[in-house]
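Before a colleague's protein record goes any further, I have to sign it off. What it holds is a sequence and that sequence's fold in token form. My question to you is simply how this chain folds and whether the tokens agree. Thanks in advance; the entry in question is below:
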Amino acid sequence: MADVLSRDGGDPLRADRLVGLLAQALELRDERTGLHSRRMSCLAGLIACKLGLGKECCDAIRLTSLLHDIGKLAVPDRILLKPGPLTKAQRAVVERHPLVGYELLAGSGSSLLDTAAVVALTHHERFDGGGYPRRLARFQIPLEGRIAAVADVFDALITDQPYRPRLSVDEAVATIRRGSGSRFDPEVIDAFLGSLDDALQVYADTGSAEARAACPAWHSALGGSDGEGGLQ
């Protein structure tokens, strides 16, 4: 992944700007999903750094993770915003969003958007092969997707959802730990646990210098200390 930003020619910021515009479009469609994507991307960047990846890789994973749910633009509001459990048919519609996101982002000729496409496609795969959409297992799942899977689930667990209230941090961490080796890559879990203090400082809007460097847009994403991402 070291060359993830290197194939965009003389204007690498062009792809960065496009990622930002697409993320804004998602947030305008559904603010809850958009803010989740910002928070989740910050956590993904911290995990990548804890894994020892280079700065360019960490920045690319953080940025491209903003678009992991871009395929939800194709999910009807009556399903996306439903305040209760989904039916089997509705769940099938939602579970198409990784493929939709991949089809939207792939093939642009930009390495950054190619990485975003991979993240969108693989963030719901499971380490044991029981995920979707392609039932990839273990190291068939790109590292970006294995990182995004942990960040995605943790943020979802500790924030209110239409179908359930948030879990406590301890409950969420215990859930993530239980998924090590089945739902999640154990090495990524170790990196997540190693970055947890910085992640929680970011959620509390009092982030360390490392966390702030990984997440320069964090204050606007959080929306205030009592916002959706605030921990009680």
User: Anything to note?
Assistant: Residues 1-8, 217-232 have pLDDT under 50 and may be disordered.
